[in-house]
Design a protein that fits this description.
about 220 residues; mainly alpha; two-stranded antiparallel ribbon; about 0% strand; globular; transmembrane
């Protein structure tokens, strides 16, 4: 039963042993026409306001050391994850963000680049960050170990958090959908209403998780 449940996340379409389901990650480039960006509309204005708000927030998180274009990578990260989360809510569309292959490919290079930049350019600051201010001398070796471990697992927690939240909602939707044929019409109508509510909840989770991923990446960047 568990194999059948998790099989909904498996790539099923392939050409020459290459899964074409992963192409759905880049559907945004294909589906959004150029005219959307050229002709102002209320959706375009709304999206631009969202991006401007994110730019201001990320700029605040990065602090005075952040360059003018430094928020672009985190806004692009938010946009990509948000689009893929939403695309996974549609039937027969592959959810790429429910796989560690994609989420780790996003978080691990970012974390490695932050670490390389920090240790090469701000070595003293990186060493000082391992021991929080006010730590007793007897606890300093333990704090160094704890801070090092918490730093090393950051890309993993970023990736697993996003993947687990996407998988949990889709599994629940799959469970509710599989029980539908064996129910009476009254219970089926209640189940349909609950699925609509769950779909709204999943839409909120898609927004929140993409925002959390981008904000935590920004905070990790601000530390170095």
């Amino acid at each position: 039963m568990m194999t059948n449940l998790f099989s909904v996340f498996d790539p099923s379409s392939s050409i020459f042993n290459f899964s074409i389901n992963w192409i759905s990650t880049f559907l945004g480039i294909i589906m959004i026409p150029m005219i959307y960006w050229l002709i102002p509309s209320r959706y375009n204005i709304l999206w631009n306001n969202i991006l401007l708000t994110l730019h201001k927030e990320f700029k605040t998180l990065l602090g005075p050391t952040g360059k003018n274009g430094s928020t672009l990578i985190f806004i692009s990260l938010f946009t990509m994850i948000l689009f893929n989360n939403f695309m996974g809510l549609f039937p027969y569309i592959f959810t790429s963000t429910s796989h560690l292959t994609l989420t780790l490919s996003l978080s691990l290079p970012l974390w490695i680049s932050f670490m390389i930049y920090g240790w090469l350019n701000h070595t003293q600051h990186m060493f000082a960050h391992l021991v929080p201010q006010g730590t007793p001398a007897i606890l300093m070796p333990f704090m160094v170990c704890i801070e090092t471990i918490s730093n090393v697992i950051r890309p993993g927690t970023l990736a697993v958090r996003l993947t687990a939240n996407m998988i949990a909602g889709h599994l629940l939707l799959t469970l509710l959908g599989n029980t539908g044929p064996s129910l009476t019409s009254l219970i089926l109508s209640i189940l349909l209403f609950s699925q609509i509510l769950l779909l709204l909840l999943e839409s909120a989770v898609a927004i929140i998780q993409s925002y959390v991923f981008a904000v935590l990446s920004t905070l990790y960047s601000s530390e170095v």
